[in-house]
Amino acid sequence: MRLDGSLDTNVLLRFIMDDVPDQTQQCISLFSMPGRRYQTADAVWIEVAYALEHHYQLNRDETAAAITSVLSLDAIEANRGVIVRTCSDYRTHPQLSFVDCYLSAQASQAKAEPLYTFDQKAQRQLGNTSPLQKGGTTALPDTTVKTLLG
User: Fold this and answer.
1) One-character DSSP codes across 64-133
2) Nearest to residue 106, comparing CAs of 125, 139, 129, 133?
3) 52 in any annotated domain
């Protein structure tokens, strides 16, 4: 599939928030071009979620709804399965950040589970994590740790 470019976070924010009308119109024009597709990196969706919640004061449901709405556009090429699951987990696990939910969804999609974490909230709320103990000993042989750390 041929892509016609990539999108930065601010393009998606202008489209979602409609707070700069001339820029919103440019986004609408861009997304309305027949057959055009634009790549959005996972990092963009993480940044969009952060901006919507912390800068624009949207709640979790509004943030997730805005992201999934944009993902439904034909012009948007994205890691849909991961981002949609991230939004779903974000709605249902209010103590977890968007990034925590994303990491869980990414691990699941990549079949790279469990997701090892020290985050006890994630361990309790997400089904695909495995705890690491804070202050515990490493599971790696001492020589491996020394090699990794230089």
Assistant:
1) HHHHHHHHTSTTEE--HHHHHHHHHHHHH-TTS-HHHHHHHHHHHHTT--SEEES-HHHHHH-TTEEE--
2) 129
3) yes
Number of C-alpha atoms within 13 angstroms, CB side, residue 112?
Answer: 9
Return the closest-CA partner of residue 41 out of 73, 72, 74, 12.
Answer: 12
Domain range for 48? 42-149
Contact 86, 101 (CB under 8 A): yes
- Please write the tens of the pLDDT for every residue from 96-141: 999 999 999 999 999 988 878 777 787 777 766 666 655 555 555 5
CA–CA separation, 115 and 122 (whole Å):
10
CA distance linking residue 62 with residue 53, whole number of Å:
9
| The pairing of beta strand 129-131 with beta strand 115-117 | parallel
13 in a structural domain: no
